[in-house]
Structure formats: structure tokens, C-alpha cells
Amino acid sequence: MASKVIPWYKRKHGSQVKTDYAIHHTKRVVKKQVERYGGDIQTFSSCFQRPCSCLTSSRKSRSHSVSQAQVHATEDMAEPAYTIPQFRQRTAEEQGTEEYQRVSTNVGKGLAVIQEEIHRMRMVTKAQVESLAIQIEVKNLMRKRPEFLDDIPKMPDFLVALRPHTVWEKMQVKLFCTVEGNPRPIVQWYKGGVPVDPLSIPAKYKIENKYGVHSLIISRCAVSDTAEYSAVATNPHGTATSKATVTVKRPAGAGEFSHLGLVPHLTEIHASKLEVTLLDRFTVTFGVEGGSISLVCSMVVVPDLPNVPPLAQWYRDDKLLHQGNLAEMSVCGGSARLTLTHLAKDDEGLYTLRIFTKDGTAEHSAYLFVSDAAPSVAGAPGAPMSVKAYDVNSDYVLVAWKPPNTVNEAPITGYFVDRCEAGSDTWVQCNNTPVNICKYPVHGLSVGSSYYFRVRAVNKTGISRPSRKSDRVTAIDAAENERLQVVKIEGKYDIVIRDDDLEGYVTIPGEPTDVHASEIYHSYVVLSWKPPSPRGRAPLWYIIEKCLAGTGAWQRINTAVKLHSPRYPVFDLQDGQKYQFRVYSVNLYGSSEPSAPSEPIQKMDEDGVPSAPGTVVSTRNTKSSVFVQWEAPKHPKDLMGYYIDARVVGAKEWFACNHKPFKHNRFVVHGLIPGESYVFRVQAVNIYGLSDESQESSPITVEPSLSTPSAPYGITMLSCDGSSMTVAWKSPKHCGGSKVNAYYIDKRNADTLVWKEVNLSAVTERVCTVDNLTEGTFYEFKVQAGNMAGVGVPSAPSTPMKCEAWTMEEPGPAYDLSFSEVRSDSLVILWNAPVYTGAGAVTGYFVDRAKKGSSDFVTLNEEAVSHRYLQVTGLEAGETYVFRVCAVNSKGIGKPSALSDPVCAKALQGTKEIMAGVDEETGDIFLSLEACEISETSKFVWSKNYKAIGDCPRVSVTNKGRTSRLTFTNPDKADLGRYSVVVTDTDGVSASHTLTEDALNTMMELSYAIRHPIVPLKHGLNYEILPKGHVRFWLQAVKLSPSVSHRFIVNDKEVSSGEGCKISHDVASGVIQMVVENFTRANEGTYTVQILDGKAKTQSSLVLVGDAFKVALREAEFQRKEHVRKQGPHFEEYLYFTVTEDCTVMLTCKVASVKKETSFHWFKDDDEIVPETPPNVMSGACGLPLPLFSRKDQGVYKAVLSDDRGKDTSVFDISGQVFDNIINAIAQIAGASASELVLQCTPQGIRLQCYMNYYTEEMKTVWKHKESKIASSEKMRIGGTSEMAWMQICDPTDKEKGHYSIEISDGVTTYTRTFDLSGQAYTDAYEEYLRLKAAAFAEKNRGRVVGGLPDVVTIMEEKSLSLTCTVWGEPTPEVTWFKNEQEVASNEHTKVTFDGGKFASMVINKVTPDDSGKYSINVRNKYGGEFVEITVSVYKHGEQIPEPKLGHPKTATPTASAAATPVPPKSPTPFSKTPTPTPKSQTPAPSVKSPTPASTPARKSPTPTPKSPTPTSKSPTPTPPRGAKSPTPPRFVKSPTPPRK
């Protein structure tokens, strides 16, 4: 960053910002130098009469021969030099003086040459300033100052008194007066009788004293500044006072009435007439693509008028910026701000703020770096930049851009160009294949449309983010304006004439001319030509033809494109061929003649990237930047700029220093780590890409450039005895790149301008006692600091100090307040003891704190501290504070020290704390700090309890790079305390650590372990049984080296590896093992392993005797048997059970080492089981299903596997707990599949049913009524089938109403199904139960044929036929006989009888063929009846007996009356979509069989089937005569249930 003020009359026209940072000497600079060294003319000679080297023991005067030095200075300053910008805040005096010390012409000549050149230029410049100042000051003094005798004493007298002022609010007022006296009076200013303190309100008051003119400047006056001001002049001979009133008025209506009630009339002020002083300036800034950033520069404006802000302009790389969407500018509130809302790499560059002032312009510049945003794909390149459109025509535009830097990414293989029509958000890719140069001709645009363009880079990994879009371009005919002519008439009127008007009436246009190639690349060629003349008024387009040069075979190339602009890109030309082109002009009237053919055109081979840049030289600049310059490439090839890369010495990865091509061959690399070493390389850039990398520069450490130190400051008096004064001062804020090793003090009487040297030899401390002073006289002091570059500028004169002996009993002020360990909420303040102790020794100190700008101090410690440091806590992060210290003795509290420098409660970036540890190699206990920054002159200063350690035998300090380590030689309790370290010549790098007793003991234990190492073990000695019965003894160490050695000792005898015993180790895993192959009783005893690994050693033992040994031996023998068993067919997994989804229990085992001849047999209780499916041993698994598992399946199951190699057996006992486990597994599946409870009515009562995959009474099922468990009884019967569980309520009453549930438990989970039998559901169910009960009673007592009748009867003619049967019914039924459905009446031929209400018969005497037919009997009573048919066949004597024809016995279906047939009951609960389970079968109607007449088969009466919800008879239902009734089949009431699975 560089800040300077340029007079407006020397500013170049245009918007040019000087990036060279060259030094320009102006009259204003000279004026400032004169003012700085103003006073007496002898001041200048004393300032330069000391040697430049601070190592000289004496100071000599030298002559001022300047002529030859001026010649050299003129030559050196005439050559444009690249001055390294200093990006840090400096005072105006530092800037003015150091401008003459920063000319560096031969940067690469080495440090010695640079130092010599700096020294020479400094002396030449001082000589020039001295000469000018002496001439000017001599003239002024001769004109203004009369000669008088200095030895005549005179009391103060005001030659020019103060005068009153009346000003408006926010204006500046200056009170001044001239006073004389001998000795020179001291002037003190008062406001209303109170001393004016400029430090109380910074920037409010300014007190000056120049050439005897004393002035008080009040900035930005407020109404509260209205008061009487006085200047009091004092010397040993008396006092004089001058007074004046300042009245500050406020305009009427602005919150207060002015004194006169008038609104002031202000003369119009232009912004360039303001006085502007820049304060806080923006520094070098770093941003990221897509983010936003603001550059702010605060300033003081006089006068500060809200409606007249300063005129500010912002520049980037010499180009004036304008307000827009991407750049927001404002000047208000005492600051100028530039906000870049959406950063892109296009925004990178040098930004300059230029503010116009009455003295010219005030400028400030700093660089903004914009790095690539994170790529969408790892390894993809960065986005291109600076996309611009050139050569815009009606349907053609040439797009160009700059390539991105590729540091660690793969090289770029090409670019995609996208376009977007204005007003749309849709981007269209212009090229199908990537173009490999940074230019691309886009054609096919719409005339009059506006477009944006953007570019994306491509490499083998992926595609970059898109660039920032270009400015909007409109596709228009560029030649249209050339066809217009403007004629001015008498300066008032303009006549516009088109060329069409001058051409006359033209139909067919002329031919184009000057056909040539405007762009020739390997990828494409752009043809250009001049439009025809005349062209006519009709719309015009072009046709292009090509041919191989010299052949004349013309071929049209834009057949699908109607071309309107005189540009056209051609892409499909062959390599090595030359082509000629010609163009036709076409309109609606026809085509012109062809143009003259172009010259032969051939695609160019790629010209390629530039050659690599030359030697790269890096030099020191600031503590975080390096100046890099390089030689331009020998073959630039249309160079765009350069990319600079850097790498930390020792690292592999490079990083980009700039992200936009830089045009010059010198660059300042910012953002580097102080004290770190870097190397640099450079690449040149053109449209083809990046050149090869240059050679790496030499390594350079980031350090400030060498210069003289800045001025010391803060001169205070520590003691005075009447003839001498002890003064102290603070170190320069900038050491100049080397250690400050000398101070020179000057003094003068306050009433003279002549400075006298106090010390000829350099003072190394910042305290000095000045002797030979006159008591009662006021003295001023100034100090200069020196380093190896020379003596710096002097400090500002101190305030006048009176040489008067101190006699107070309290101590003097402490001094040299400094800070350490500054963090966001705490810091440590340190100070030196007062030189003047008063009447007694200093016993303690009090520390006061106040916020910057405030006078409200708070004492931090209630009790005085005896040590000279204090840790301050409870600070507000980011707040700035000032401190002061008061010493205390037995007489009281002494004078407070001078205020400390303001300190901000904020830790340095990257601050690290002290780390305590133990060296892993040596075991040394140490404290270590890695500094976040360091310079070449930095030193690590360690302290204990804030007292420098120095050379102490208890500790040693070693430094390496940025790390310092304090090692304790023999640590003990004496080393406990608080240790701190300060890194000198940094911005306050420091840290502390309190070493406690617990922490020290812990580290001492670790140190002992390192110095007396043991091999740490993860696991001690242990054993395990291997599959073959081998026993493995093993242990595992945390870490083993390849050189480890070990021994196994068994019962005090070392065992070596051999037959039956193998010993080995694995370094990677840290395992040491011994395998005993035949483990027997002889192996009982104690096992020990001893390990030696370098210096470390350890051992581990295992006692294997008694029961522990028996367990190991038993396991080893078992494993041996297992090994033998597995040599033949064997069970890989023994028998176990599983339960399938249909609740089938499967006994399963897995077999191994089987063959086809291997047999497999199942046994239960030693009885062989032959399953339906033979076991297949070759499948590897065998299973035995146990369907419908119940208690009958308990027993001992055995599987036997055998062949010629041996036999193996697996036994599974299903009883006890195993049986319960199986039942629980079945219950788990059945319970999960259980349906909701179903209600079904029976003649016996109401039944609740739960369907499931399988049910057995062994399952844990519980029925509950109203949460009470139900036990099976005559009233509540519980049972089930394999498909369901049921509970029946016999003869239900109202007591059985309520909520019913069934709980099925599998031992872990309980599955519950419920039914609410109450309300309407109970009513409907009860009615259905009564109906079914009545129907059952009727079925039991209805009339029926018990037996005796055949189905078919065959009888010979003249025989007698007797049909007799037994009937039953309660009450006694009626019996009716029928022949062919006609009732048979009893007569002599056919006699019908019914005896005892039990036996019915029909006898036909002497049958005839007429008696053949279908006979039937109908038996009925009030509950119903039965209808039975008999077929009778009569044949004649001698005829063949006919085949019997079976009749179709019919059961008379009772016909119930309307009163006897109840309405089906409604469902007690709303129906769900789930269908009701369907019964598996229905009971068929009985049939009557007819073998012989004597046969009387029993007949089965139909009974209701409980599984059938609505059973129906399959037989037809004839209507019996005479109202015969049959029972109504039973009906069932159900709750909706899911279908059975």
C-alpha cells in the first residue's frame, strides 16, 4: 500500500494511477519538511552532524558539501524506480521523512549494495532539504525577527493578543497569539479556567507553537464549545494572560436556537475546496470468488458539510470505476467506501482512492487479491476471466478471455463458450468441442438482439465454474453508421443523408470487395470483406464459396446459414491445404457477381505459448510480503501477463500468488507468513495458455526491508534533583529490519530553538540522566534511534519539563509500561520500578485501567502487588484500553505513570500457547513455544515469574526456526512457577505457562519411563487352545522393533523352538508366541517370557497348575478328539430346531466331509424314523419335519451319519426346557398370525373363536372376561382344533356380557385379540342362540323313518308286497303313503296300517304290472317330517328279472311357517372389508340304500356343521304335499374376521 498527496496541477490527464510507487518531490513535501525542522536555522545543522553508523563511539561534525551529491541524486531519481509499497500505518512525519529513504535502484545487487545506496541517498536528500530550509528560514528570520540581546531578562508580554470568534456549528476555529519574553515563556491554554488537554478528546484540540506564534485549533465546533478561552504565558520573571470568547451558533430549527436566531448564509463550496486528511486506510485485502468485500478509508473533512461530500474516485489498475451492480461507492460519515458485491477474479488488481482537495489530491492504493472458489469437481480448473466481445456485427461476434492459473491442477485442454440472450436466464453452449485458444468466433446471432457471454475451462478432471459474464453486446450492422452522412446548416439544423439516397434506385447489389482472413488459427479462420457499394435498399445477405487454391472448383460453404454480416468463421479446413474464397451479395432481386478471390489462405500451426520467463529474483519488502521481479521471456508471442507461484521451502505444494495475469515483470507478493522461507517461479500467459515455469528463485525469508528505525516517542521525566533530570522513552514502533542498538538525546531550553547534544556516545538503554542543568529552567528533549542502517528521524519534542528538585515523600512514577500475552479477554502488563523512591522503599503498585478516549480509570487490584507485573482479566474482546501504574511506599501513593500505549484485547492471528512436554528420545522435561511470526532480528526471551532467566544452570534454551524450547536440567520443586516467553521485534508474540507440582510429577514419571524404558504390553502372557488340540502361549507388545529378542522359560528351563514346540514373533502386530503341539500332564507349571528390545525390556509370566491346568488339558483333549472326528463324515452343526411359517417344527443339522455312499438315519427313542423324503447328505443339510407338534412329539431324537471312514452322531432331547422353547417358537408365529375373535352361535350357547396358523393346547393361552382369567368349566368351556382356539359360553345370561380377550404368549411377547360381547352384539347373538336351540329341539323330535324300507323292490306278478318301516316322532307322527305322488287309500288290494304309533306298513296283495311305480311314505308331526321314496317293479312269470333302477330317496324338507322361521340376526359390530372364513365342508343329505328287504340300514340325520357359517343342502328341496314341515338349518353369528391362510 502506498499513500501520497499529488497537487492537482501536477496530476496527469486521464485516469492514470502510478503503480511504480515512485517518489515525487513537490512543493508541499518541501513545505512539510521545513515546518518539521522549523524553529531555529541551527536545528538543521545539528540534525545532520552525527555519523550514520550507530556503532561509532564518537560523534563528529562534517561539512555540508552538497553539489556533487545533488548530481547523483538527480540521476538516481530521474530513473523510474519500483518502490516497495509499505502496507502499514505511519504518522505524517514518518511518511514525509521515510519517502527519502526508500529509493532502491539496484534491487538484485545484494544487501551490502542496498545498504550503501540507502545511506548515500539519505545523506543526499538531507543535504537538499537542509539547503532549501536554510535559505527559506534565513529570509524569513531576516524579515520577521529584529535583533535583540538575549541576555536581557523580560517578563512575558503578548505582542498579538487573542481575539473573539463567532462561528457556526461543525466549523473549525483557530485562536492564536504572539508572546515574547526572556527566557522564552511557556504558554498554557485554558477553557473556562480549566486546562485544555488535547489527549482527553482526540482530534478535538490541537496546540501548536511555531516561530513564537502559539495557536489553539478547535475542530468541529459544537455549541458546548462556547466559552472564554485564555492563554497564560509564564517564565521565571512573571505571568501574562490573554483572553477571548468563542461563540458557537446553531442554525434555527436545528435543535437549538442560535444566539441571533438567524440562519447563516453559507457561500457555495465546491468539493475540491475541502481540506481532506486520510486516516485509517484500507490494507492489502484477500477475497474469494462469489464473496463480497468492502474497501474503506476514513478521513477528516474540514469543513464537514453534509450536503457537500468530498469528490472521490476509485480506480482499478489505472481504470476509473463507475457505480453499478458489481461496484457500490459511497462517501459519507467520514469515510469513503467501495463495496464489491459479487467478487470474481476480474476484480483482482491495484485499487486506488483519489480524493480531490484544495491542495490537489489525496491518494491511497492497495492490492486486492481474489482467489478461486471451490471447484464443483475436485481437480477441475479455475474459471477464466476478463471475457469481452469484439468485432460485433449483425450476426457475428468475436469473444476473447484470459486463461486461469493452473498450479496443482491438470493442464487445461480447452474452453466452452456460452451465450445468453438479454432478458433470459438460459445459457446456450456455442461450441460442441472445446476450443484450445482464448478466442472464439460466435455466429448465428439474431440481428438486433442483445447477448451476454461466459466461458468455462476444461481439463481431464472436469469443467470449471463459469466466468463472470461479459458486458451486454447488441448484434447490429457495424457498417450501418458509416452509410450515414450529417450536413449542418448554419449550426442550427442537421440533415442526415443515407448512402442509399445518393446511390439512386439500385436493385441488384454490387459485389463485395477485399475478401481476406482477419483471424487465422489452427482451429478456425475468420473471413472478412467490405460490403458492396452500391448495395441498394433491399435487405442484403451473403453467399461464400471456397476452392482449393488454383483449382477453380468452387463450392458453397454457407448453404444452411443466411449470412448478414461481413464476417464468417470457417472451421472445417484441412491441414496443409491452401484455400481461396469469394463472396456474393444477394438480395430479393438477385445475386451480384462474385468478389475477387482472396489470397490463398492456409490454417496456421499453433504459434504456441511464450517461452519461459528468465531469472527470478526476490528481495525483502515487509514482514508479510516479498518483492519479486524477473526477466521477460525471449519470445513473448502477444504476452498477456504473468502468473507468480510460491512454495514454502521444504514443502511440495505450490500456491498461486496472483489469480489474474499481471502485466509488469515485478510484483509484490502479499499474505506470506512472517519469518517463513519461500521460493518463487513465474509463468508467462498468452491466448494459447501458460508457458513453462521459470527457474525457481533463491529461498528468501519474509522480513521487512532494511531501513532506519522510526522515531522513539513517549518521553517522560522519572526524577530530578535540581541539576540533573532522568528521562525515559519508548522504543520505535518500527525497528527498520534490524535491531535498534543506539539512542541519541538532544536537549534545549524551552525559550530557545537551539538543540544541543546530550550524549556523543550511543545509549543502549531507554533511560538517560541529563546533567549540568539549571534549576528552575524548562527543558525539552528529543531522541533518535539507530540501527545498522543508520540513525532514524528524531522524535517529536517532549513537553517542557521544569528542572526542579523532587522533594515529595511518595515515590515517583513507574515507567516503560509494556504488555505481554494479549488475548481477547486478558493480558499481562509489566513495568519498571520508579527511579525516584521518595522517603522510603517502594512496597507495591496499583494498576488503573480505562477505555481508550475515556478518563474514567478503574483500579484493578484492591491490594498493592509487590511484583512488577499484573495479569488483567475480564476484558471485552476487541475493546481498546489504556493503563497507568502508581507506586506505593510507606508515605502513600506516588505519581501515576504516563499512560501506556493503547492496547486492543485481541490475540494475534495464529497465536499458540506454551506447550509442556517430555522429549521422547532423551526424557528431558521442556517448555516449548512455536511463534506465529518472527523476524530476522527476533529473539526468544524466557522469564520465570516475569524475571528474565538469563544464564541459569537449572535450564537451557535452544532455538530452531520459529520454535524455542526451555529444557530443565534437573527438575524439582524449585522449578515450579510461571514461565513466560516474549519474541522480540514482532507485534507482541508472547505466551506463558504455569508449571504446577502435579504436572511436574506427571512429567517426571514419564521422563523416568523414557530414561528407564520397558517394553509396554497390550496383553500379558496368556494361552489359547487351537483346533488340533495344540496350545498357544502368547503375549502382545504395543510396539516391537526388528531387533527384538525374547526367551520362553518353562519351570525354570529355557525352551527353544524345535519338534513339538514352535516359537515365533511378528514385529507388525507385536505378538510373541509359543505353540505346544502335544499338550499333556507333563506341561503343567509356570511359563515366563523375557523380552529385550534395544534398551527396553520386560517379562510376563503365566501360572498353569491345579484346576486351571485341568481345564486347559480337558479343552486340549476335546479339540484333539474333534480333529479326529472331523477326518470322516461329521456334523458341522449339531441338531437344532426351527419353526416354519406354517408352525411345522424342523429338526435340522449341517453335515460336512460326506460322499454319495454316506448314510443318514433318524431315530426317536432308538426307534428309526423313515421320513417320506429321504435325507440328501450331499446338500450339506438334513431336516426332519414334525408337523402338528404337540406333547406326543417329546422324546430323544438322534441323527446318525456314517460311511467307511467313520460315524458321527448328533442327539437332540425334546423335553423340559427344549420342549417349552419349541412351544414358545410356535406360539410366536401362531400369535402373530392370529385373527380377531369371531363370534359363532350354537344350540349349546355362544362361542368365541380365534383362527391362527396352528393351535395346540400346550401353548400358553389365557381367556379373559373383563380382565379376569377364565377357567374351563361347565359354564365356560375352553377348547380348540389345530386351526383355532375357542371358548363357549353355555346357556348365556346377562352376566356373561362384557369384554372378552385371548392372550397368546411366546415367553417374550403376548399377542392379544379381543371381542366386545355387549350391547347389540350380545342381543343379536342371544337371539340367534335361542333360534338354534329351538331348531335343534325340532330336529330331534320331528317325524322320521327310522329304518326298514328299501330303495328298489322287484317282485313277480301275483306275489304279495309288504313295505314295512319303523317311524319315530314326538308327538307321534302322521303317516301317509303315496303312489306316483297320489295318496294311497287302504282297501282290500292295498292295505295300509300304522300300529302303536311306531310301525307303518303297506301290503299289496297279488301284485299286477299296474302296481309298478314310485311309492313314497311321508312321516310328519308338528316339528317336521321325512319323505322316503321306493321304486317297485312287477314282472311276469318267465320273464327275465329286470335290472333294478335305483330311485332317488328324498328327504322331505320341512316347510316352516312364517312364524317359525326367524329373521337372520344382524352383525353385532359394523362389518369390515375382511371376509368371513369359509368352511371347508358341508354335511350332505342322507340317502337310503336298498340291498335286500331284510336290510334296514341306519339312517343318519343331518346335523349342523359348526365350521360352516351358512350351510345349505346340496339335494333339491321338493315341496311335500299336505304342508309337510322340515327343520330349518342352523345359522351362525360372526364378527368380521380375516380369511384363513
At a glance:
By secondary structure, the chain is mainly β. The chain is built from ten helices and 100 strands. α3 (67-78) packs across α5.
Task: Based on Cα principal axes, name the global outline.
Answer: extended
Can you count the beta strands?
100
Structural class by SSE content = mainly beta
Question: What percentage of the residues does DSSP assign to strands (E)?
Answer: 35-45%
Count of helices? 10
Unreliable stretches covering 5 or more consecutive residues:
1-109, 145-149, 254-267, 1446-1541
The average pLDDT is: 81
Please give the largest β-sheet.
6 strands, mixed
As a whole number of angstroms, the C-alpha radius of gyration is: 59 Å
Helix content: under 10%
Cα end-to-end separation: 88 Å
List descriptors:
1541 residues, mainly beta, six-stranded mixed sheet, 10 helices, disordered C terminus
What features would you describe in this structure?
This protein has 1541 residues and is mainly β. It is 10% helix and 39% strand. The strands form 25 sheets. Strands 1, 12, 14, 15, 18 and 19 form a six-stranded mixed beta sheet that branches. A hairpin with a 2-residue loop joins strand 42 (677-686) and strand 43. The chain starts with a strand and ends in a 106-residue tail after the last strand. The model is unreliable at 1-109, 145-149, 254-267 and 1446-1541 (pLDDT under 50).
How do the strands and helices of this protein lay out in sequence?
Elements: E1 2-6, H1 27-36, H2 42-47, H3 67-78, H4 92-98, H5 111-144, E2 154-160, E3 165-168, E4 173-182, E5 186-191, E6 194-195, E7 205-210, E8 213-218, E9 227-235, E10 238-249, E11 275-278, E12 285-288, E13 293-302, E14 312-316, E15 319-320, E16 327-332, E17 335-340, E18 349-357, E19 360-371, E20 385-390, E21 396-402, E22 414-421, E23 428-429, E24 439-443, E25 450-458, E26 473-474, E27 484-489, E28 493-498, H6 499-503, E29 513-520, E30 525-530, E31 541-548, E32 555-556, E33 567-570, E34 578-587, E35 590-591, E36 601-602, E37 616-622, E38 625-630, E39 641-648, E40 655-656, E41 666-669, E42 677-686, E43 689-690, E44 700-701, E45 713-720, E46 725-730, E47 742-749, E48 756-757, E49 767-770, E50 778-787, E51 790-791, E52 801-802, E53 815-820, E54 826-832, E55 844-851, E56 858-859, E57 869-873, E58 880-889, E59 892-896, E60 903-904, E61 915-918, E62 925-930, E63 940-944, E64 947-948, E65 955-960, E66 963-968, E67 977-983, E68 990-995, H7 997-1011, E69 1017-1025, E70 1031-1037, E71 1045-1050, E72 1053-1055, E73 1061-1066, ...
Parallel strand pairs: 3-10, 12-19, 93-100
Antiparallel strand pairs: 1-19, 2-4, 4-8, 5-6, 5-9, 7-8, 9-10, 11-13, 13-17, 14-15, 14-18, 16-17, 18-19, 20-21, 21-24, 22-23, 22-25, 25-26, 27-28, 29-30, 30-33, 31-32, 31-34, 34-35, 34-36, 37-38, 38-41, 39-40, 39-42, 42-43, 42-44, 45-46, 46-49, 47-48, 47-50, 50-51, 50-52, 53-54, 54-57, 55-56, ...
Helix pairs in contact: 3-5
